[in-house]
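Next up, sample data:
>
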Amino acid sequence: MMKEKGIDAGKDVGSPQIIQIVGYKNTGKTTMTASLIAGLATKGLKVAAIKHDGHDHFEMDQEGTDSYQFGKAGASAVAVMSPHRTAVLKQQHTRLEDMLKEFCQYDWVVIEGFKHAAYPKLVMVRHENDLALVNQLQSVVGIVFWSPELLEEAESRGDKSFSSFLFNDKQTIVEAVVQLNRLAGKEAATMQAFNEDDDNNIDKDDGA
């Protein structure tokens, strides 16, 4: 289910499409991020993912591995390369913008978190109080509601500025995100409803 709205976000020519999934804790951000990645990948698109960890307690390398041993020994960066995979772990802060430059060869970058960044974003709403976040953010292109009741309650208040989705209707969300046209400039873009049949839509073959 999707309520059609016109929304704007931006893209530099030659850079990946970017979509952020943001929300408070336990609102389904990781589930939605994984669904978007899967949906985009099944369309043959090359997708990269970035996740924000606000607690700085994650470990990508596991105790007992060579990479873990190198890091503990004092290496500021460790790279592990195989015929099909490459992993790099750096003991430093990296700005989101710098990481996005590393992913410039991808078609899409799906970002979980970094809610104050200025990229197009979907806001996860599980409870009524979660709606307070929407007005605190920029470049919101849609709201994902956990229930029809929440969606209807929000719209009954006259808030029709954003596209509205239901959490379980993940395929609809993927199709709408695919049609997120990011134009020049970071402030503006247009999310067109995936079933809108006019000259501004992408060809149906692109969304198959």
